Structure formats: structure tokens, C-alpha cells
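Co-fold these.
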Amino acid sequence: MIAPAPRPPLPADASTAPLAAALLDPAAPLPAPLRPLPGEAPERRFAVHRNNVLSGLVAALAARYPAGQAVVGEAFFAAMAAAYARCHPPRSPAMLAYGGGFPRFVAGFPPAAALPYLPDLLRLEDARARAFHAADAPPLSLAALATADGGLERRVLRPHPALRLLASAQPVVTIWAMQVGEMPLGPLSAWQPEAALVTRPHQAVLVHRLPPGGVALARALAAGRPLGEAAGQALAGHPGLDLPSVLSILIGQGAFRQERGPRSHGAPA
Amino acid sequence: MPEPRLPPRAGLGFKPAHFEAIIAAPPAVGFLEVHAENYMGQGGAPHAQLARLRQDHALSLHGVGLSIGGMAPPDRAHLARLRRLCARYAPESFSEHLAWSRHDGIYYNDLLPLPYTPETLARVARHVDAVQAALGRPMLLENPASYVAFAGETMPEGAFLAEVARRTGCFLLLDVNNLYVAARNRGADPAAELACFPLHAVRQVHLAGHAAATGPEAGPPLLIDDHGAPVADPVWALYARLLEATGPLPTLIEWDNDVPPWPVLLREAARAEALLQPARTRRAA
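Predicted complex below.
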């Protein structure tokens, strides 16, 4: 646009480096190539961009971690997210994937140390975000499993692309459900470890609390172990595992994908 | 290369919250626009919704992450993602911004300004060429809202955009709100800026609301392009003046923050249609 004031005879700095250097650093001076205009001072004008950058990244993290934000409150979350964004700005314009490192960052963020369950709560939300955008695939149904040829023990199940598993030392599924309104807020009856099964058989992301041993079974199956072998592994670690019940949860929630061809029926042990 | 071919009607930006309202009725707008980066996941609801909407809506694919004004050439992985989206949804138009957002491997998630000089002109033209070669179609380049000015800038924005279009064969997306905000923030006359804009290359219009930030100093407030309000009256007036000069153009109402219910957006679109209709009649006469 045509500037009303006469231009100083300086060469324009075509490099984006001076502005980039000042965007995420609140203490950085005004970038040298900027010149004053009538009205607002250049500092306040450049502050629009500084604010856009930081508030945009904080908003992206808040959208990925709504339960985390609900737990710590908006102001604390914004400060924690801004600290993360300054250390770990995005490397890609595909912002749907931004913030995957936030749970690990929070685990080492001293002001959040009083909430030991927070990192796993964030990991659960990260798993939900990844599941939401995962590739589509028709889920394996119980009927398809029952009617398949070959022995059930030797069946190899293929994990659905959206499948995510999280074993926590904290009651993280219950806390998550209370924060997002899937359960009424209230005192926890028992503070015990919980494991989350995250799936997306169709468009909606599902979160289910797995009984002890459920994650071991799901992981063994997802790693390609035949059903009999996976069950044996899970039972060895968790003798009380109710195998039919857990298997029907896994399949009912869409943890595995439909078989494609006859090759995958009764895969060799 | 196929020309952009959106209908010269009012369109709206698609928000997932409005999906049910949109499909519950016959198509009510000339086209829908989506931000390309929101559809760069592999599957799930975003693609299911867009595929459904594409069945009966013209589509404008609008990118925000290519960093065409940046120092590095457009990111190859990002171009590949855009190419896949264009192949899957065959949008009537693809547009991006005259701005940068990447520097030295960091993505700043904002549309950042660049000075207009022969050097940046050559850079932008190279990058537009690369985008058009990768996508196999001409793109539309959008004028930015601006808040700052650079020392030693040698070209007005209109001349800069005209020359990019001439060198690359790209078209322009004229954001009337951006033009208004940028002119006012520089103490310039928006109508005079519009008169200097290369209207012959414009194939789409954006309209949006802005906010006025009242600062500690006396004087005109800084206008912020926040896409969070109805289109302001002076922007509507500028738009009417534009249509008198160009005839009807595909016109998008952008509302990205504090998004209102779908019927409110439809009323904004109807306001644009009320200006487009006489422009279509004038053209037909």
C-alpha cells in the first residue's frame, strides 16, 4: 500500500529473520526493519503479531487438551501452554498434530508438580486427538470373529488405525470423564490405577476404562500375537483376567479392523 | 491449467458445528470455503463431513500455511498434502496469502508481513510458480491485513500484486476487509487503495469483521482483522464500489472466532447477495 509519509532512503531488509527472532521472545526489542506510522507506536503494532502467534498456539493446545485446561483453569493453562510454545514451537503448518509433546513437557513443569495425574490426563487427550484424525477402517465385529474359519486360538487380529492404549498409575479415565461431563463431578471412591482404551470405529472417539490385564491383552494382540498366545501372556501377568469379557469390550469398542481377504483368516501361528 | 470457477455468489466458511444445519436443508449458499490445514488428518469426521458437503456444494480450498512470502520455497511435504486434498475434493478454487509464516524451520501460525520490494517480488513470484506447478492449477493470492510498515519499502501493495499476477499467471483474492484495515492502519484512504488495486486479476472476494483496539495514545485506533464480528458498514460500502467496477464475484463471508449460529451467517451471506444480484443484472444487461 502507498504510505503517506516520505520513505527513508534505507534498503528494505527482505529477510524474515529480524521479525521471526522477535515473535516468541517477549523481551526482544522491536525488529529493526519496522518504521513508525501515524497513530499507534510500532511496538504496539508489532504486538498484534506477537499476540496472534502466542495466543494461536495456546488456543491450539487448549483445543487438544480441554480436560487439562478444566483441571488447572484457563489462566494457569495459558501460562503453561505459552511456556511450551516458546520452547517447542510448531515445525509444520499441519497444526492438527501440534502439541503431541505437551504431556511430557508438563510432566517436567515444576508449577504443575502438585498434580501428579495431569501428565497422564493430557496423554489420554493426546490419544483422543490422534484417534480423531486417524485413517478410516471398518471395525472387526464380534460376529465376524465368531464366524471366521480356523481355530480362534490361532487368529491374528489387526489393530484399527485409531487404536490407542494408555496404562496409568492414576485414575485418569474417571478424572477425564468427570472433566468433560461424561460423569458427574464428585469425589473418587478409590484412588487406583486405570487403563484407557481409545478407539474410533466410525466418526466418534470412544474412551473405555479397561479392567486390569486388558491393556496387556490388547497390546499383545495389536503386536500381532495370535489370540491364544496373547491371552496366555495377559493371564500370566493378571491371573484374574476375565478373558471373554475383555475381548468383547475390545471388539465392541472397535479396537481391531475388519479382515481384508481370506489370507488373514486363520493366519499361521 | 483450469481457471478458478466458483459461482459469482455469496459463500460461507464451513465450521463443523454447522454441519447438521447445512445438510438439513437444500444448499443455501453459492459455495463453501474450508481451511486446507484442517483437512490434513488421515480420516475421521473432518473428511466424512467434507465429502458429504462436496456432493452438493462448490468448494473453495483456502490455505493458511504455505508461507509464500517466506525466504524458503514452499515446503514440499505441505505441497504434497495440498495436492492430495485437491485431487480428493477437486475444489473450484485454491487460494493462499501474501504473507509468511515459516522461518528457519519454525512455523509461526500467523500471517506475517513482508516489505514490498523488487527482491521480495521475485521471491514471491518464484514461490507462486512452485505452488502452481505442484498443484497443476492457478492459485489465488490474497492481500493481507497489515499493522506495520517497513523502512525502505519501494512498491505499493497494488503494484506488487499486479506484478506477481502478471509474472506468474496467478489470480487475486481481494479481501476487502483486509484492504480497509491495512489502509486505515497506515493512515491511507481505503477508496484510493481500492482504485489502485489490480481488479482485472481478482477472482474472489473475502469479507469479514474487524475489531478496533483502543490504545493508550490519542488518535485513530488500530484495526485488528479478527474475523469475529459482522462485516463493518464501511467495508460493505467499499464492497459495493468494488462490484460496480468488476461485476459480480464469488464472495466469502469469513467468521472464524466467536462463530455465531448458521442462520446468522446466512443473513450475512444474504446481505452480500443483495449487492451481487444487481451486479449480475447489470452484467446481463
